[in-house]
Design goal:
Elements lengths: L1 H40 L1 E17 L9 E14 L2 E6 L12 E6 L7 E3 L2 H5 L3 H33 L1 E18 L2 E10 L2 E7 L11 E6 L7 E3 L17
Antiparallel strand pairs: 1-2, 1-4, 2-3, 4-5, 6-7, 6-9, 7-8, 9-10
Length: about 240
């Protein structure tokens, strides 16, 4: 079940990451194209920060049980003059180092004096980070898929080459590190001599009573690597396990 969980998570993260990367990549390309369009035929102008303030953003709750919340964002108003026309417009980026009266270099569109772009590498290419948000999900998805494939390969190797023992069931535990629909995963605990084995998530058909026996495949060179074998007709064993070979 752990392999299945990792595989499902990997596919979900990978799909979300690809969709987000494509959408934000299109948005990023449009922002850069717009910047280049204005910058190539625009008018270089020195603007002055005329006003700095905070804008309150209010988001309403879904119903009366949830109160409205508010956040604040910094707003910067600049002022510049082109061909005798003075324009006041909000700056599309801000910094905590800004102050009223500070000069900022911009490029103003010749066809629309209210349309401008800031001069500087970061102001021009900041949108390139947008697709990176989606790539984070893609990388996480790939990691989950790699882990799932590796766990599956390790288990298949144990099924083919592992040393079989009949461990005594001690009961079940809840693994809170892995949750399904908010509920912890149930695992089977069994012992063989001084060794203690904990299974992956089990299904109802894999449940066993305390004192019964279940087949465990152990790596010949590393007893910390093992796998429960639930492939038989029934994992439940008689009170006396078969003799070990």
């Amino acid at each position: 079940m752990v392999v299945r969980v990792f595989k499902i998570l990997g596919l979900i993260f990978f799909a979300i990451g690809m969709i987000v990367s494509v959408v934000l990549g299109i948005v990023s390309a449009n922002i850069i194209n717009n910047h280049n369009r204005i910058a190539q035929d625009g008018i270089p102008v020195t603007a002055t920060i005329a006003e700095i303030g905070l804008r309150r953003n209010i988001s309403s709750g879904f119903d009366d049980d949830f109160a409205s919340s508010s956040t604040y964002s910094m707003t910067v108003i600049i002022e510049y003059t082109v061909g005798g026309t003075t324009v006041r417009a909000p700056l599309n980026w801000s910094s905590s180092n800004m102050r009223v009266g500070q000069n900022i270099e911009i490029i103003v569109s010749r066809t629309n004096l209210h349309e401008f772009v800031s001069v500087g590498f970061w102001q021009q290419y900041w949108s390139l980070v947008l697709p990176g948000i989606g790539m984070i999900f893609v990388v996480l998805g790939a990691i989950f898929l790699i882990v799932a494939r590796r766990k599956h390969s390790n288990k298949q190797w144990l099924f083919e080459h592992g040393k079989p023992v009949w461990a005594t069931v001690q009961g079940t535990e809840e693994n809170w590190n892995v949750r399904i629909n908010g509920r912890p995963m149930t695992v089977l605990v069994a012992t063989y001599g001084a060794m203690r084995f904990v299974s992956d998530g089990i299904k109802n058909r894999d449940l066993a009573n305390i004192g019964q026996h279940v087949k465990v495949l152990i790596h010949p060179d590393n007893p910390d690597r093992y796998a429960f074998d639930f492939h038989d007709e029934s994992p439940l064993r008689p009170s006396d396990p078969p003799e070990q070979t």
